Amino acid sequence: MAHEETVYDALGNAQDDHGHWAFGTGFDEPLAGVDTTVPEGIGPADLGAYCLMLGDDALVLAQRLTQWITAAPELEEEVAIANVALDLLGQARLLLARAGSVGVLGRSREKATDSIPDEDALAYFRDPDEFRSTGLVEAPNGDFARTMVRLLAAATVRLAVFARLRESRDPVLAAIAAKGVNELAYHRDHAARWVLRLGDGTDESHRRAQAGADAVWPLLDDLFTATDVEARLTAAGVAVDPAEVREEVVSVLTEVLERATLRVPEWPADAAPRGRTGEHTAELPELLATLQGLARQHPAATW
């Protein structure tokens, strides 16, 4: 049996059920064996900030999804939601580790013990204003229909970005994206199936699905506007301009809603990015208080 010695091998091998990786298994250091040298001409601070944007979205959405554990409508769906959350945690771990590898730790390292890995320091010891997640992933779950519509939107955007990031000049980002597209394709398909089932189901399920779409659509207003960091890294061949994926996202979401017999809400006007620049609602501190509470109470604990 072939032995995959590095995470690079596992990231690059997503065919025929080989090389599957779950959060916290297979290796102790998420970037073990990977050349983390920053490509020539790329600012480490910009690369780290971009990894935080992608990693924070995954981390925060995973936390939202775990709030459904023990509350999902079916046992099978509870397992599915947990698996989606674990996929996102895996992506977050790799991306935050990449951010840490280029020195983007800020105040988090001052609060964490030296023994805590960079990705844990970034996840558990940053304050809300240091997070770069979007309002789409931060918003409360609402009911199950709204959760599935939000997951559909978030997975569609993320999949479109990751598909393009496979060509990134940063080999670490490219490897993370190559592994992530398979997971995200499943996330999008799973959410789409639920939106179709709910939208084209009973009067009550249709009403809830429509209400979910109406609640989620305004959260898309700042997803397609690039920050200065994204603009610089896109020009350097490292990142993806969010405006580039807009047409694809609109097409996919429109098709799913129409097939689900749902009215496509009016698309919001593009707005300046808020979460990407550290501007958040009161909902994020509440979520982080739960996510970070244990680690902050016992920063030196091991288990």
Automatic annotation (TrEMBL):
An individual GO BP term: phenylacetate catabolic process
List the InterPro entries. Aromatic_CoA_ox/epox, Ferritin-like, Ferritin-like_SF, PaaA_PaaC, PaaC
A GO CC term? Answer: cytosol
| Identification of the protein by name | Ring-1,2-phenylacetyl-CoA epoxidase subunit PaaC
- What are the top taxonomic ranks of the organism? Bacteria, Bacillati, Actinomycetota, Actinomycetes, Geodermatophilales
